[in-house]
Amino acid sequence: MRNPPDDTAPLNSPPARGEGSGRAATAAAPADSPPPDPSREREGNEPVRKCILSGERDVRPHLVRLALSPDGQILPDVRAKAPGRGAWIGVTRVELEAAIKKGKLKGALARAFKTGEFTIDPELPAKIEAALERNALDRLGLESRSGTVLIGSDRIEQNARQGKLKALYHASDAAEDGNRKLDQAWRIGNDEEGSGLRGLALPVSRTILALALGRENVVHIGLTDRAAAKRVSEALDRWLHFIGPEPSSVSCETASQGASASPQNGAPPIQQASGSTGTRPAVDMTEEFE
What we know:
Elements: E1 42-43, E2 46-50, E3 57-59, E4 64-68, E5 74-76, E6 86-89, H1 93-102, H2 104-113, H3 124-145, E7 149-150, H4 153-161, E8 167-170, H5 176-189, E9 200-201, H6 206-213, E10 220-223, H7 226-243
C-alpha cells in the first residue's frame, strides 16, 4: 500500500509503482472474527479493487475500469462512470497486449462479467491509452480554468524559489537549459539542492499542452495548490504507468481543450450515468469489479 501523502513534500511526479505497491494492508482480526470483505477494503478514503490480470490490489484512481457495453463490446471507462458491471486492470500496455494475445484477458473478463458473450477489440490497448491521455490533459485543462495552474518560466521560477511549487511539468520539446533552470529553482525553494528533485517531462509537446490548457505556448507547468497537484498527479500516474517508459504511440495533435465534451474513452459511449456525481445503479460488488 502506498504511504499516506506527505503534506509538505512536492508532488513532482506520479507515485512510483514498486513491488507490492497497491496492496491493501489490513489489521489482524481476532480468530473468531469473520474474514474481511475485500470489496469493503479502503486505503484512506478510497475503495480498493483488484486487477483481474495481475491480482494486485490498489485504490480505484490508480486502476483502469473496463466496462461491458450493451452491444457486447469491452470499452475503457477511465472515469468509472459507466453503469453496470466493470472489471479493473492495473497493468501496462505491453502487459495487456500480451494478455490479449495469450487469451488471458478474455478468460479474466469472462469470470468478471460471468459471460463469454463479448468482443475484445484488437485496438483496446490503443483506446485505453487515448482515453487516459485525454483524461490527464482534461484534468490539466480543468485546473487551468480554475486558476490553479502556473505557466511562464519567470512566474514558475519565482514561485519555485519561494517554496510554493507543489508540482512541475515540462513539455517533451522543452529546452534542456530551461528545464534545468526551473528544476534548480524548485530544489532551492524546497531546500533540496543536490537532490534529484526535478520536474516531470511529459510525453506531449508544447502544442498539445497549449491546446489542453487553452493557452498559448505552454512549455512548463507549475502547480502551487496541493489538492490540484494531487489530482493532476493521479491522472498522470495512470496514463504514464500504462504507456510505460517508452510510449507506444505519438499523441494526437488535436488533444481536447479542458474538460472533454466527447466520450471519454475515444469510442462510442456505453451509456452515461445520470447526474454529475457519477452515481450508477446498484451492482453486485466484489474485489475485482464494480
